[in-house]
From TrEMBL:
Species in which this protein is naturally found: Bifidobacterium actinocoloniiforme DSM 22766
Database matches in PANTHER family: CALCIUM-TRANSPORTING ATPASE
Superkingdom of source: Bacteria
UniProt protein name: Cation-transporting ATPase
Domain P-type ATPase A: 114-205
Enzyme Commission number(s) of this protein: 3.6.3.8
UniProtKB keywords: Hydrolase, Membrane, Translocase, Transmembrane, Transmembrane helix
Length: 827
């Protein structure tokens, strides 16, 4: 073990020897040392495997390899989507892994331990169980310890418990790792280190990788699984059918016609897979994340953008979300002769406010003093100030003596009146009433001149026995300006908001009332210590609770689980380590920019500038993504439906496939892929409702069925009507050209239906892509690559008939099928 060198600070003398070097070495060898694991639960190899070896990639890759084996590389361009989609997924999860690997609640630094009768500087990860550890003001407690001896130690445990006030520790009490010493000094004995410490246990739970649930991805995967069941046997049947159309297996292998047969079979398979939808989903999530980043909102998991649209329960941490962590001066209330609250005599208010400023005007005022000086900024330090006793957390009061006049004492009422308890019942009642309003109550007391003046000695912590209460001063937590309008927005959007805090329930309820958490209705508050442990009972209790105080970290997680049991989609905000488990359990964890590193690491969304007012924009962006993706998902699924039905018709009637893979690539790009990209970026604030897959299927079936029937009708009727022999390549090419044109027209009709209303830029969008498809057919390079032939003569007439029939079929299917499909889907 290496011990840091340097000047040792002065510590009080203690009669405890501490561990010897041999005891330290023995415990280090036994693993009782303050070292925690620093890796997340997923390795680089696991991330790559989970994104590369997916069902979608497997289907597309297999189809691409088969096409490439035929030598028809132009028909294999659909495989590029694998590389793009896999790259987006791997990059996103690698970013999440790096964040998780950096996760640490404890800040590694050197500490002073009392070993072998002397004080030595020891690195954070060299502390062992049983060490006597000095905890000084400003130190972060590096391991769980028990207080052996204290010299006024006060800890800030807000990052662990959510309690915003400091906690004074007594001998024998526990000091948990991750808390911070704000004042005083203590000698402690290390009781738990490394993975056994409180902070390490929180970190370990937070580091467990959890994939964000996505209704959209789940719906797509359901479609892919269904297609897998259909694709494999259908692909085999398609190959067999296409071989028969070119004279059988032997003839096909001899003449090389097997290549065309295989490519035709792949055309049916590829058409059934909504490969563009998978890619567009990833890209749309990424674009939404980029847009939110411009508003100082960092999205750490792309799928969480979708979750934003589904949120209907929002759990808010008070400190850092509703309040900014600071305090503000509210008022000074004069106490009358009978010590009741009453209107002061002329000039008395100003006299007491001046005295308050004089007491607070220290060289380095604390947060309360700074708030008073800011609130009474019109006052300046008077020339009456004589001796001063500055505030200390050990003494809990401060004082000044005016050169001519009384001495003024400032502190908590229970401290200043400790020796006169019960002598001022009206004052005590007033203090309780103000505290019940969520206010921090302090007292200004006086002692007339001529009595013993306050001494500046820091060793003297005694108070005079004859102090007389003069005024009550109230301070409150500084509420964010954007809190009330933001909560109003959520309330109007039907999102149930609750404030969950480690503070006193009355205090939290008072703040909730100020920001109108529940509108005009007073918020219902409850002490979390009274909550049932059973999740089902807890879910019922939460329905009638708006504010919860004294909440422990595990309870925050349990609250989220109870809301899930009630079918809620839960978002949780927080900034402390105590919030990290709940943030991870929630459907959407939102951390403030000034949050603890552990909290930001597990959150899906980080409000970089800690502005609560960004949340409506965040939710609105999520709703835009989900509503638009539902719209375009229907567009992609139409292709899946008609491809499956056309493939089935080809198998049953043993005809050549009516188009090539490159045809479906061209048609899909102009009627689905590229238009969907623009439609997915359109403004849309519709709140998401469960049932994504059911609605998408209900939309896709009418258009898909109509398209399949029209194309199959053309493939069945044209050869005998036109005198085409499908064994002749030129005749088969003409049939495929006519069917491809009809298929393109049907695709434009479906696009027009998706893009409604058309009396805006949406109509222009549909017209542009329709024109692009027609113009592309007249460009020789495009026409050759995609095997497009302009119909002429009787082929043109057949194409015109097909277009008319297609329009009629689409109108009929859209008009009549949905009502029957709706009844079937409900069953």
């Amino acid at each position: 073990m290496s011990v840091a060198q340097g000047p040792t600070p002065s510590f009080p003398q203690v009669d405890l020897p501490g561990l010897s070097q041999s005891e330290v070495d023995e415990r280090t060898a036994a693993g009782q040392v303050n070292v925690s694991e620093d890796h997340s639960s997923r390795t680089l190899g696991q991330i790559i495997r989970s994104n590369v070896f997916t069902l979608f990639n497997g289907i597309i890759l297999a189809a691409m390899i088969v096409v490439l084996a035929t030598g028809q590389w132009r028909d294999a361009v659909f495989g590029v989507v694998i590389i793009i989609n896999t790259g987006i997924g791997v990059a996103t999860e690698l970013k999440a892994k790096r964040t998780l690997d950096k996760l640490s609640i404890l800040v590694a630094s050197d500490y002073y331990a009392h070993r072998g009768g002397r004080n030595v500087s020891v690195p954070h990860d060299s502390l062992v169980v049983g060490d006597l550890l000095w905890v000084r003001s400003g130190d972060q407690v590096p391991a769980d310890t028990r207080i052996v001896k204290t010299w006024g130690l006060e800890l800030d445990e807000s990052m662990l418990t959510g309690e915003s006030r400091t906690v004074r520790k007594s001998e024998g009490e526990q000091a948990y790792s991750g808390s911070t010493a704000v004042s005083g000094l203590a000698l402690t004995e290390v009781s738990a280190v490394g993975t056994s410490s409180y902070a390490a246990k929180l970190t370990a739970q937070a580091k467990v990788y959890k994939k964000t649930h996505s209704d959209l991805n789940e719906g797509i995967n359901t479609i892919l699984k269904a297609m897998t069941v259909v694709v494999v046997p259908l692909c085999i049947l398609l190959v067999w059918t296409q071989m028969r159309t070119v004279g059988g297996f032997q003839e096909a292998m001899t003449t090389g016609a097997w290549r065309g047969a295989v490519v035709s079979a792949v055309a049916g398979v590829v058409g059934m897979i909504p490969e563009g939808l998978v890619l567009l989903t990833s890209l749309n999530f990424a674009l939404a994340a980029i847009r939110l980043a411009r508003q100082n909102t960092l999205v750490q998991e792309l799928e969480s953008v979708e979750t934003l649209a589904r949120v209907d329960a929002l759990n808010l941490d008070k400190t850092g979300t509703i309040t900014d962590g600071g305090i503000v001066y509210d008022s000074l209330t004069v106490l009358g002769e009978d010590q009741g609250l009453q209107a002061p005599p002329m000039g008395r208010q100003q006299e007491l406010e001046q005295a308050l400023v004089d007491v607070a005007q220290e060289e380095n005022p604390n947060a309360t003093g700074s708030a008073i000086l800011q609130g009474l900024s019109s006052y300046r330090l008077s020339d009456q100030v004589g001796e001063r006793v500055p505030f200390s957390s050990a003494r809990k009061w401060s004082a000044v003596a005016w050169k001519e006049g009384p001495s003024w004492y400032f502190g908590a009422p229970e401290v200043l009146l400790a020796s006169q308890k019960g002598e001022y019942p009206l004052v005590e009642a007033a203090v309780r009433a103000l505290a019940d309003q969520g206010l921090r109550v302090l007292m200004l007391a006086s002692r007339e001149s001529g009595a013993q003046e306050p001494t500046p000695s820091l060793e003297d912590s005694g108070l005079p026995q004859d102090l007389r209460p003069a005024a009550l001063i109230t301070c409150s937590e500084s509420i964010r300006e954007d809190a009330e309008p933001t909560l109003t927005w959520f309330r109007e959007q039907g999102v149930r908001c609750r404030i969950i805090s480690g503070d006193n329930p009355a205090t939290v309820a008072a703040i909730a009332g100020k920001v109108k958490l529940t509108g005009d209705r007073p918020p219902k508050a409850m002490d979390a210590r009274e909550l049932p442990s059973d999740t089902a009972q807890l879910a019922r209790v939460l329905e009638d609770v708006d504010v919860l105080g004294r909440v422990l970290p595990d309870q925050k997680k349990a609250i989220v689980q109870a809301l899930h049991l009630g079918g809620r989609t839960v978002a949780m905000t927080g900034d402390g380590v105590n919030d990290s488990l709940a943030l991870k359990e929630a459907d959407l964890g939102i951390a403030m920019g000034n949050a603890a590193p552990a909290t930001k690491a597990v959150a899906q969304v980080v409000l970089v500038d800690s502005k609560f007012s960004h949340l409506p924009d965040v939710v609105a962006r999520g709703r835009q993504v989900m509503a638009n993706m539902e719209r375009v998902a229907g567009l992609f699924l139409v292709k899946t439906v008609y491809s499956a039905l056309i493939s089935l018709g080809v198998v049953l009637t043993a005809i050549p496939f009516p188009y090539l893979p490159r045809h479906i690539t061209y048609i899909g790009a102009l009627t689905i892929g590229m238009p969907a990209f623009f439609l997915a970026l359109a403004p849309n604030t519709r709140r998401y409702k469960p049932g994504f897959l059911k609605r998408v299927v209900a939309f896709a079936l009418p258009g898909g069925i109509a398209t399949a029937l029209v194309v199959l009708a053309m493939a069945w009727s044209l050869p005998p009507a036109m005198g085409w022999s499908l064994s002749i390549p030129s005749d088969l090419s003409q049939l495929r050209t006519v069917c491809a044109i009809v298929l393109f027209a049907m695709g434009i009709l479906v696009l027009a239906r998706v893009a409604q209303p058309l009396n805006s830029w949406r109509g222009v969008l549909v017209a542009l892509f329709a024109a692009a498809g027609v113009i592309g057919a007249f460009i020789s390079l495009v026409a050759r690559f995609f095997a497009i032939v302009i119909p002429s003569g009787r082929s043109a007439a057949a194409t015109l008939v097909g277009l008319i029939v297609g329009c009629a079929a689409m109108a009929l299917s859209v008009g009549f099928l949905p009502k029957y499909l709706d009844k079937v889907l409900k069953l």
